[in-house]
From TrEMBL:
GO terms for molecular function: succinate-semialdehyde dehydrogenase (NAD+) activity. The keyword Oxidoreductase applies. The active site is at 254. It comes from the Bacteria. InterPro entries: Ald_DH/histidinol_DH, Ald_DH_C, Ald_DH_CS_CYS, Ald_DH_CS_GLU, Ald_DH_N, Aldehyde_DH_dom, Aldehyde_DH_Superfamily, Succ_semiAld_DH. GO terms for biological process: gamma-aminobutyric acid catabolic process. This is NAD-dependent succinate-semialdehyde dehydrogenase.
Length: 483
């Protein structure tokens, strides 16, 4: 049993139409630090998913017709309850996901910020009047909720990825059916409990835990589900896009990344070290906007490598998520740890040099130490593939053109970072980088006020900001004649 102030936040049943739904079949939620069972969660399938779609569909009419100010007030109450229970939510998150408590607490606050932001934006869904082609007509455009939304969320940010989707959906007047990752369903269920306490009507939020294939297939084949919002790998995302094509659903797809972090010779090296430490190693490298490749100008390459190794040694402590001294926890599963190690070992075989780390930790099968590799080239596996782990591969470049070419040599385009003190270069590089998010002399860019999303095979649509609400709305043009 987790040491929670409010034990009722640890839910193991699914949440459908305002009721908690159990099942004989269950999913074991394991703590990646020690592989102990945190909880056994209901394993539902297609039938219960259809019930959740029914609930969301039935709740839609009254929810979308509720005055925006009232929806805003309910979202605001939910936000307040999340913050009031921040510590318990962080304890649940750490137990199922493994990230250290400091990061878990930060995620709860970050996730809550999306509920707060969209509570405010609910009152700002504006339309337009347009000059008509003749004086007997009037043209008006209004925005209306798209309808029932399917939300499929990943395990790396099980709290924030859910609020980033549910927040704008509810603000727009949509209802939702959510499928959290099987590795980390407890955070989603705790959020549902708090949403229930906030007074959000039954059927507006539904959380279905269980068989991913059965649940996903039913959600995406349903004509009553009008939109999918998904965060996950590009590979899975492509499959979901294909399934959505049968019913032409609206989609927000936040997919994989391969973020370059470019350090130019005029950069403030200490600031760049701080930036790469924050961008690369938070959540043990398990974020889609994590630095994947560190591109360093040849004139400062060795100095930067030495500084980075020193910083990693001094600042990072690998340990259990509930150890307050730890800065980095385990990876989500042993298979994830093995995948990271394969990328590292294959790259070493191709000529990469280990400056730090480079082997699985003795702490446990899910632990991989912060690793720094030098002599890396852009054709090595650690540069070509998304490394969902704490591995920093350093690639040398000689000039601006080469840095841009290396950075853009990927089929994805989510986030990129670069450090320079040349204002002309700031504009040139920022405009040339083929990425949806660019951090300039900054390693952490995510916040609720800015649009989050990528280009190319990193997906489509934006989350957060005023633009994030548009993905949950349809524009209706009304032409009035006989005036």
């Amino acid at each position: 049993m987790l040491n929670l102030t409010d034990q009722s936040l640890l839910k193991t049943d699914a949440y459908i139409d305002g009721e908690w739904v159990s099942s004989r079949n269950t999913i074991n939620v394991l703590n990646p630090c020690n592989h102990e069972t945190v909880a056994k969660v209901a394993k539902l399938g297609a039938e219960q998913t259809e019930a959740a779609i029914d609930a969301a569909h039935n709740a839609l009419k009254s929810w979308r017709s509720m005055p925006a100010k009232e929806r805003s007030q309910l979202l605001r109450r939910w936000y307040q309850l999340v913050l009031e229970n921040q510590e318990d939510l962080a304890q649940i998150l750490t137990a199922e996901q493994g990230k250290v408590l400091a990061e878990a607490r930060a995620e709860i606050a970050y996730g809550a910020s999306y509920i707060e932001w969209f509570a405010e934006e609910a009152k700002r869904v504006y339309g337009d009047t347009i000059p008509a082609p003749s004086d007997d007509k009037r043209i008006v455009c209004i925005k209306q909720p798209v309808g029932v939304v399917a939300c499929i969320t990943p395990w790396n940010f099980p709290n924030a990825m859910l609020t980033r989707k549910i927040g704008p959906a509810l603000a727009a007047g949509c209802t939702v059916v959510c499928k959290p990752a099987s590795e980390t369903p407890l955070s989603a269920l705790a959020l549902a409990e708090l949403a229930d306490r906030s007074g959000i009507p039954k059927g507006v939020i539904n959380i279905v835990t269980g068989n991913a294939h059965d649940i996903g297939t039913r959600l995406l084949s349903s004509t009553r589900v009008r939109k999918l919002t998904f965060t996950g790998s590009t590979e899975v995302g492509k499959k979901l896009v294909s399934q959505c094509s049968e019913t032409l659903k609206k989609m927000t797809m936040e997919l994989g990344g391969n973020a370059p972090f470019i350090v130019f010779p005029d950069a403030d090296l200490d600031a760049a070290i701080d930036g790469v430490m924050a961008s690369k190693f938070r959540n043990s490298g398990q974020t889609c906007v994590c630095t994947n490749r560190v591109l360093v100008h040849s004139d400062i390459y060795q100095e930067f490598a030495d500084k980075l190794v020193s910083a990693v040694k001094q600042r990072l402590v690998l340990g259990s998520g509930d150890d307050e001294k730890a800065t980095n926890g385990p990876l989500i599963t042993k298979s994830a740890c093995d995948a990271v190690d394969r990328l590292v070992q294959t790259s070493i075989a191709k000529g990469a040099v280990v400056k730090l780390g480079g082997q699985p930790s003795t702490l446990g099968s899910c632990f991989y130490p912060p690793t720094v590799l030098t002599n890396v080239t852009n054709d090595m596996p650690v540069a070509r593939e998304e490394v969902f782990g704490p591995v920093a591969p350093l690639i040398s470049f000689d000039n601006e053109e080469q840095a841009i070419a290396i950075a853009n040599d990927t089929n994805v385009g989510l986030a990129a970072y670069f450090y320079t003190r040349d204002i002309g270069r700031v504009w040139r590089i920022a405009e040339e980088l083929e990425y949806g998010i660019v951090g300039i002399n900054e390693g952490i860019t995510s916040n609720e006020m800015a649009p989050f999303g990528g280009i190319k095979e990193s997906g489509s649509g934006r989350e957060g900001s005023k633009y994030g609400l548009d993905d949950y709305l349809e524009i209706k043009y009304m032409c009035m004649g006989g005036i």
